[in-house]
Automatic annotation (TrEMBL):
<dbReference type="GO" id="GO:0043190">
    <property type="term" value="C:ATP-binding cassette (ABC) transporter complex"/>
</dbReference>
<protein>
    <submittedName>
        <fullName>Osmoprotectant transport system substrate-binding protein</fullName>
    </submittedName>
</protein>
<dbReference type="InterPro" id="IPR007210">
    <property type="entry name" value="ABC_Gly_betaine_transp_sub-bd"/>
</dbReference>
<feature type="domain" description="ABC-type glycine betaine transport system substrate-binding">
    <location>
        <begin position="52"/>
        <end position="322"/>
    </location>
</feature>
<keyword id="KW-0732">Signal</keyword>
<dbReference type="Pfam" id="PF04069">
    <property type="entry name" value="OpuAC"/>
</dbReference>
<dbReference type="GO" id="GO:0022857">
    <property type="term" value="F:transmembrane transporter activity"/>
</dbReference>
<feature type="signal peptide">
    <location>
        <begin position="1"/>
        <end position="20"/>
    </location>
</feature>
Length: 327
């Protein structure tokens, strides 16, 4: 999941937050002004008909897609929506939600637990972490969480598919054994942040007892990790985000974190407390949609936007129609 920087490092002044909350961007403005919403499995909700809901999102593709899915679903339920997707800075959209300037946006359980609720250690079980976040965020901030999606947008290590097959690699334990038996081939491309984080490279190598020389590690920008891993020249393995569309597009294989080291980042709709009280069925409307959002589905949606350049609003609408939520 994106944006795991501590809250204290991301604090912004009121003026900056106000600017960030203007929302929208090249991604969303180029996405098509209006998408027709016909009747599907989402039915009109009496409490929402004619009411206005402000939908926010963070400033990366996946979260913007979630925002557009939410806007279309709420339109189908009879609401009017204001598009505040692509707010700059994760903390800014969160502050917007707490202030009531944003009614809903999608957050990640790991981000809430570690960054907003200030816990040091993640909860290794997905359901237990979600339950803990839901309880504490409601008690401290009156934030209401919808159901969590099956997807887990966390860190992972990937290798190109042909090498995963050739080297018989399926898990990070397999990778650790491979690094010992074939150290010259155990080369890695990492982001600078991941390379120094306790929940990144240092913690991963400690957990899996991997001893990789610095000469086998190349620190590069996020996008370069994917392309270099695919080339297999400067590195055979790369640090990726599990729901990134480039994984499928570049035919990379994600290695299973079999020791459950990486924090869990399940996405879910979050709702301002006053908004949730006024529209108690709001999270229920999104629940069937949420249940469909697994890693592979989100990768494909992200790929259509990031790799194929399709308008995000159209991608969201197409998927909702394919699943029968709208017509």
């Amino acid at each position: 999941m994106r944006t795991r920087t501590p809250l204290s490092r991301l604090a912004a002044g009121t003026a900056l937050i106000a600017m960030a909350l203007t929302g929208c961007s090249v991604t969303t403005e180029d996405s098509g002004a209006e998408v027709a919403v016909g009747a599907g499995s989402i039915k009109k909700d009496d409490a929402l008909v004619g009411q206005t809901i402000v939908v926010g999102s963070k400033d990366f593709t996946e979260n913007i897609v979630f925002g557009h899915i939410t806007m279309l679903a709420l339109k189908a339920a009879g609401a009017n929506v204001i598009d505040k997707t692509n707010i700059k800075g994760s903390v800014n959209v969160r502050k917007g939600l707490l202030a009531g300037e944003v009614d809903v946006y999608w957050e990640y359980t790991g981000t809430a637990w570690i960054t907003y609720l200030n816990h040091t250690d993640p909860v290794p079980d997905s359901r237990q972490q979600y339950d803990a976040v839901v309880k504490e965020d409601k008690e401290k901030n009156q934030v209401v969480w919808g159901a969590i999606a099956p997807a887990n947008n966390t860190y992972a290590m990937a290798v190109r598919a042909e090498k995963a097959k050739e080297w018989n690699l399926r898990t990070l334990s397999d990778l650790a054994a491979f690094a010992k038996s074939k150290p010259t081939d155990a080369t890695f491309c990492l982001e600078s942040e991941f390379a120094g984080r306790n929940d990144g490279w240092p913690g991963m190598t400690k957990t899996y007892a991997m001893n990789v020389p610095k000469s086998n590690i190349r620190t590069v920008d996020t996008g370069v990790v994917y392309t270099e891993t695919k080339k297999g020249e400067s590195c055979n393995f790369g640090e990726v985000f599990t729901t990134d569309g480039r994984i499928s597009n570049l035919d990379l294989v994600v290695l299973e974190d079999d020791k459950k080291f990486f924090p869990i980042y399940n996405p879910a709709l979050t709702v301002n407390g006053a908004t949730a009280a006024k529209y108690p069925n709001l999270t229920n409307i999104l629940e069937p949609i949420t249940a469909k959002l697994d890693d592979e589905t989100i990768r494909k949606l992200n790929e259509r936007v990031d790799v194929k350049g399709e308008p995000v609003a159209q991608v969201a609408a197409d998927w909702l129609k394919e699943e029968g939520f709208i017509a």
